[in-house]
Structures are given as structure tokens and as C-alpha cells.
Amino acid sequence: MHWWRRRGREEYELEEFWFGGLHCILRGIISREMQLSSLPEKVRAPRDGGWRGTT
């Protein structure tokens, strides 16, 4: 699983990329959920699945 371990410096860059990216994604999802929780019920269920449409 950790095939990049032997590549030295790239290991840190990859971990930084993953943790930074996951943090940004989680923060976006959390803020979006908080925004959606204050909206009416019919607005909370967009037709296209929820990733685009309500902004």
C-alpha cells in the first residue's frame, strides 16, 4: 500500500497533499451541510444529486 515510502521526500509531499485535500473537502462538506440545514426541506434535495445546483 505504501509504495511511495522509498521515494524519500515525495512521501511528505504526498501525505501533505492527502491530508490537506481531505481537510479542505471535509471543511467544504461540513460548511455545506450547515448551510443546507438552515434551508427549507424542499431546497435541501436538489434534483441533480446535491453536488451542484444549490450555491
Low-confidence stretches: none
Q: Overall pLDDT, averaged?
A: 67
What is the count of β-strands? Answer: 0
Content-based structural category: mainly alpha
Order of helices and strands: H
Written overview of the protein:
This protein is mainly alpha-helical and 55 residues long. Helix content is 53%, strand content 0%. The longest helix is centred in the middle third of the chain and has 29 residues, at 9-37. The protein contains one helix and no strands. It has a domain at 5-37.
Summarize the structure.
With 55 residues, the chain is an all-alpha fold. It has one helix spanning 9-37.
Topology:
Elements: H1 9-37
Fill in the keyword field for this structure.
55 residues; mainly alpha; 1 helix; rod-shaped
